[in-house]
Amino acid sequence: MYARISVEKQRERVAALEKEVAELQGALGENEDANKIVQDHIKLLHRYNEAKDATQILIGRLAAMKGSTVRQIHKDLELPEQD
């Protein structure tokens, strides 16, 4: 038993969704491609993660050289302990 939606309500809903899409496209920019923006963002996140991983390796090596802990190196360098 599904509730039936009148044709009028369906049209109103479609019109509301089309208006929302137009507003979002306007906020994004008329000539902007949302998929490209997402892909670019993903690439930037990969670069960030690679740089962060490399930094953590170096911090780990520095801690080993100093006979310290990674946590202590983070404190000494005033780095956050977590993201």
From TrEMBL:
Gene3D superfamilies: 1.20.5.170
Sections of the chain in a coiled coil: 7-34
Keywords: Coiled coil, DNA damage, DNA repair
A cellular component term, taken from the record's GO annotations: Swi5-Swi2 complex
GO biological process: meiotic DNA recombinase assembly involved in reciprocal meiotic recombination; meiotic joint molecule formation
Entry similarity comment: Belongs to the SWI5/SAE3 family.
Protein name in UniProt: Swi5-domain-containing protein
Organism from which the protein derives: Dendrothele bispora (strain CBS 962.96)
Organism phylogeny: Eukaryota, Fungi, Dikarya, Basidiomycota, Agaricomycotina
